[in-house]
Amino acid sequence: MLESVLDSLRISRLSAEKLLKSIEAMSKEKIHGYTGATILCGKCLQSWQTSGLTAKALDYNAKTLKLALAAICLHDLPNDLDMYIRKIDFWRNPYAYLLFLIDNLQDWFRNLRPNEEWPSYNLLKIGKTENRLELSYILTHENWAKDMEDSVKGSVRKKFGRLKMMTKPNPPLHFQIAVNFRTSHGQQLGAEEILL
């Protein structure tokens, strides 16, 4: 699995010491990206043993699995490994690129919400044209406090910052994603346009 991640990022084992240590820690801490990749790998290998697939089909499945495993691991990069975000390349591993993008567009501490300190959020509106996707989220809480609003704004800025680190596909896909977040009482929390 580690080789899949390194290959997707086009880095050598020597230049990835911090990443490898983090992945090792993720495996011990049961971080969902690493755990999910491990489970997927085990299930696929188990299934293939009795599948009767041809060698060509097994080779194709193995290559696809390698990309999928790397994507699942990389979508859950801890904040201290942000330097590797720039290395997630759409054309090298589209699964990793799209999963990181999607997770950072929608994953807002879902296991913590709603509670006294964090609002719930829901997709309010989705719109699509041929080259553009628009996502509008509404965050709701019974008692919006100033510190909660500031915390949510900071989280939105951090997520948008991580998305801006991603290297744009080259050649470009000529596709835009517009996303905005606001509170149930109308306060704008953040908006961003992502060009792919």
Protein architecture, described:
The chain has 196 residues and is an alpha+beta fold. It folds into two domains: 2-100, no CATH class; 108-195, GMP Synthetase, Chain A, domain 3. It has six helices and four strands, in the order H-H-H-H-H-E-E-H-E-E. The protein has a four-stranded mixed sheet, with helices on one face. Strand 1 and strand 2 (132-140) form a beta hairpin. Helix 4 packs parallel to helix 5 (94-106) and helix 5 packs antiparallel against helix 6 (146-165). It starts with a helix and ends with a strand. The model has no long low-confidence stretch (mean pLDDT 83).
Question: Cα distance, first to last residue?
Answer: 28 Å
Radius of gyration: 19 Å
- Give the number of helices: 6
State the strand order across the main sheet.
1-2-3-4
Major sheet description: 4 strands, mixed
What is the H-and-E element order?
HHHHHEEHEE
Low-confidence stretches: none
Number of domains: 2
Number of strands: 4
Q: β content, as a range? A: 15-25%
Structural class: alpha+beta
State the shape: globular
Q: Helicity level, as a percent range? A: 40-55%
Mean pLDDT: 83
